[in-house]
């Protein structure tokens, strides 16, 4: 059936109430998105974080008369003189098929592909990771993950131990194992991420080489390579923890860093690591360093 959606601009403080009001006024579904395209990554468990300027969208049956709803919203306490809205007609589609059609195999470096399970594998002789888009844990499409995957593709990983700090979907750990690493340890604060990592490792035939831990469960260990694709804040705050996983002469790869944050992150590690020139994709950076000799 066809639909119509009503989108209003709300402040961070009032976005939740506007969403509730749309539901009370008959919206079948309510979604939130950023008016300025600023990302929010993995908010603390149990918290809902909204953007400074949030677009709140209510989905209605196409036969709904939106004028009384718009009038009610405009007169509510959540808007002053800055009430704005727009409406969009949504045609009837097979939304699951539409969603699936948007995802294609992606190549990283010379030999590594990430392939949705419903797509044909472009190169059966390549290193292929079977990974379906899920709950925003990472499928390689974001520049931060892409930078790390391309770096891994170029490394001699045979026999090495890898730590994937903030493992999410497990994509980096799984890529390392498929590229020859002997052992990978994934660490994440989110139990759902560990479940996703385990399922993805089983799908790719490397579950026997992947260990997964919450931070409070992680063992003491040293790795040849530590991958930390998180955000600049945690990278700085947890510098001692992350650096502690890197063995003597081991390597550290960090991403999730905006170009303006590069120097601050490097400063948190520069006493222990010698960095190569940063790599950049769009506004995102990847840092690679090797532990200095004692």
TrEMBL record:
GO biological process: methylation
Record-listed E.C. numbers: 2.1.1.-
UniProt name for this protein: Ribosomal protein L11 methyltransferase
Role, per record: Methylates ribosomal protein L11.
Subcellular location, record wording: Cytoplasm
Catalytic activity as recorded in UniProt: L-lysyl-[protein] + 3 S-adenosyl-L-methionine = N(6),N(6),N(6)-trimethyl-L-lysyl-[protein] + 3 S-adenosyl-L-homocysteine + 3 H(+)
Positions with a binding annotation for S-adenosyl-L-methionine: 145, 166, 188, 229
Keyword annotations: Cytoplasm, Methyltransferase, Ribonucleoprotein, Ribosomal protein, S-adenosyl-L-methionine, Transferase
Pfam families: PrmA
MF-aspect GO terms: protein-lysine N-methyltransferase activity
NCBIfam families xref list: prmA
Xref: InterPro entries: Ribosomal_L11_MeTrfase_PrmA, Ribosomal_PrmA_MeTrfase, SAM-dependent_MTases_sf
Source species: Pseudidiomarina taiwanensis
Protein family (similarity comment): Belongs to the methyltransferase superfamily. PrmA family.
Gene3D superfamilies: Vaccinia Virus protein VP39
GO terms for cellular component: cytosol; ribosome
Top-level EC class: transferase
Origin: domain of life: Bacteria
